[in-house]
Specification:
By secondary structure, the chain is an alpha+beta fold. Helices cover about 40% and strands about 35% of the residues. It has helices at about 1-25, 30-55, 180, 185-190, 205-215, 220-275, 345-350, 365-380; strands spanning about 65-70, 75-80, 85-100, 105-120, 120-135, 140-145, 145-150, 160-175, 195-205, 280-285, 295-300, 305-310, 310-315, 320-325, 335-340, 355. The strands form 4 sheets. Strands 1, 2, 3, 4, 5, 8 and 9 form a 7-stranded antiparallel beta sheet that branches. A 4-stranded antiparallel beta sheet has the order 10-11-12-13, with helices on one face. Strands 14-15-16 form a 3-stranded antiparallel beta sheet, covered by helices on one side.
């Protein structure tokens, strides 16, 4: 309809000019009625051709997985339902920026652009309505922005009136990994496949028509997103299950290792009891994180005892033994130093045998064992 009015207006202007030329130059070579029919018929033909070129987009049939195309003067969108893709084609000048994988499109101005992406990747993101400034006189009554207003007196006032055109921006954002599909912020932040295409001066009627046409694909787009979301959830559940299984296996292995180490520690304690003949009326030991024996000590009331520090072992009578509490220093914590009688060691090393153990134990614990060793050392001396 707009095309028809526009062509009739142009035809009227040309008709006036042609009538003048016909009268002045050609002395009414053509009858004015003939001219009127010629120009208005031409306007109808031009309008019909224009409308034919601007054919309505094909109605979307849910049962037809074919190809659908929307086209206007500024852009075209081709949807292939069987391939689940959409192609955006911009034949005229547009401003394009964004990223295609690791390629930075930067800000490419006034370029022709075409890109194909998954059907769920295309969005008409923003519409900037173009307005023009119009002015009221000192008195005015009429409709402004859908409201009836009345102004009188005062200075001239202005208002922004729609021009029937807008600037639009298409955004294409799509990803190849499930994590990005689940959280769009991730692939936008990480600069994956994201493009922006800004097109200026698009007719509002074209935008409305495209939105109506594009809305028909909403069920297909929703189905695609649901499928991707379910695939991601399945992938995420499998990943969590795999991690849980690995953690469980690791915990079971660690528990088995600790149990085995603890059993080895018990075996060593039993072996030391057999070698020394100690019953272990008083005994203590310390294990590391892997349940290996760090140190152990056991004494009987009759003076028998054994001490191990790592692989260093001693057993025998506690006669002459002394114990000293060594306070904490810069590079070591408080501990107990036990001096035992070991003639063979003294002959071989020409030094007394000292066993240092119980590092990091509290003062009361160290004091108790220091008294016990010293009492047995005097009692059996």
């Amino acid at each position: 309809m707009k095309s028809l009015l526009k062509n009739f207006t142009i035809a009227t202007i040309l008709l006036v000019f042609a009538s003048y030329v016909n009268a002045v130059v050609y002395r009414f070579w053509f009858d004015n009625t003939t001219l009127i029919w010629m120009f208005y018929a031409g306007a109808l033909v031009v309008s019909a051709i224009s409308e034919k070129k601007r054919a309505k987009p094909k109605i979307v049939d849910p049962n037809d997985k074919g190809i659908y195309n929307y086209k206007c003067g500024h852009f075209s969108v081709l949807v292939d339902l069987s391939a689940q893709t959409v192609k955006l084609h911009i034949p005229q000048a547009a401003n394009v920026y964004g990223h295609m994988g690791s390629v930075d499109l930067k800000n490419r101005k006034n370029v022709r652009y075409e890109v194909t992406m998954p059907l769920d990747g295309l969005h008409l993101d923003q519409v900037y309505q173009i307005t023009t400034t119009k002015y009221y006189g000192n008195s005015y009554s009429g409709m402004v922005d859908g409201k009836f207003i009345t102004l009188s007196g005062g200075e001239t006032k202005s208002y922004e009136a729609p021009t029937g055109k807008s600037n639009i921006e298409f955004i294409g954002n799509w990803a190849t990994d499930a994590l990005a599909i689940a959280d769009p912020k991730i692939f936008i932040k990480e600069k994956k496949n994201v493009i922006h295409a800004r097109i200026n001066n698009v007719r509002d009627s074209d935008i409305a028509e495209f939105k109506s046409w594009w809305s028909a694909f909403s069920p297909f787009i929703k189905a695609i997103k649901d499928e991707k979301r379910q695939a991601f959830q399945k992938q995420e559940a499998e990943a969590k299950a795999s991690i849980a299984a690995k953690n469980k296996a690791k915990q079971e292995f660690e528990q088995q290792e600790k149990a085995a180490a603890k059993e080895r520690a018990n075996d060593r304690y039993r072996l030391m009891r057999q070698k020394s003949g100690v019953q272990g009326h008083f005994r203590e030991w310390s294990l590391d994180a892997n349940n290996a024996v760090v140190w152990s000590i056991a004494v009987d009331r009759d003076g028998k005892g054994f001490v191990t520090v790592g692989q260093n072992e001693w057993f025998g009578m506690m006669s002459g033994a002394t114990a000293t509490m060594v306070p904490a220093a810069k590079d070591t914590s408080a501990h107990l130093e036990i001096l035992v009688e070991d003639p063979e060691f003294e002959v071989e090393h020409l030094t007394k045998r000292r066993l240092r153990l119980m590092y990091g134990e509290n003062r009361e614990f160290l004091q108790e064992w220091m008294d016990r060793i010293n009492l047995l050392g005097k009692k059996t001396a």
